[in-house]
Specification:
Structural class: alpha/beta
Distance between the termini: 35 Å
Shape: globular
Largest sheet: 4 strands, parallel
Oligomer: single chain
Radius of gyration: 17 Å
Strand order of the largest sheet: 1-2-3-4
């Protein structure tokens, strides 16, 4: 469903080929899109993307939802959600956390849909179908996708970068570094096309 939307956008824009970047759950969507569209994806950048194995999928079925909270009349569920996410943001990064909260509150009844879809995704079947040169990036600070970094790099024969001073909200915490790594991946794919 999520990848269908990306495919529809690509078709609507009339893109013959394109570079694809996915962050966190969006990285899993990018894996599916790259597997479906093959050589039309000229390069693939995966940031803080979980590597979903059958074992991880089985363990995840028992995990507490990350972003879903039971709404309460006094609004205390908002503080509960804030506190669940607070440790991903360093002091001084409250503006980024505020943006996350605003997005989460808009879809509170569906806040876990992306995580559920990720847990169900048969990634092992899709990774071998990816033909685009891949780059995998991950923050070194409290990024829960860090255990996925090496397996993802190996599975895609990708270039890998870990970035100090960044966690799961890496694109917001270190936007210049994030942009630099994406532009390097695009440039490398362009050089390989020549």
């Amino acid at each position: 469903m999520f990848a269908d939307g990306v495919e529809d956008l690509v078709a609507g824009l009339g893109l013959e080929s394109f570079h694809l970047v996915g962050h966190h759950t969006g990285g899993v969507i990018a894996v599916e899109v790259a597997a479906r569209l093959g050589s039309r994806v000229r390069s693939l950048v995966l940031s803080a993307t979980p590597f979903i194995t059958p074992e991880k999928r089985a363990r995840a079925a028992w995990k507490r939802p990350v972003d879903w909270v039971q709404p309460k009349p006094d609004g205390s569920h908002l503080m509960e959600l804030w506190n669940r996410r607070r440790h991903f943001y360093a002091p001084g990064q409250e503006a980024a956390l505020n943006r996350f909260m605003a997005d989460a509150v808009r879809v509170l009844d569906r806040a876990e849909d992306g995580h559920i879809a990720v847990r169900l995704f048969a990634m092992g079947e899709r990774l071998p179908r990816i033909t685009a040169p891949a780059t995998v990036i991950c923050g070194q600070d409290d990024d829960p996708s860090m255990p996925s970094f090496e397996p993802m790099v190996n599975a895609l024969s990708a270039t890998g970068h870990t970035v100090p001073g960044a966690g799961v909200p890496f694109p917001e915490q270190r936007p210049e570094e994030f942009a630099r790594l994406v532009l390097e991946a695009v440039a490398a794919a362009g050089a390989a096309d020549r």
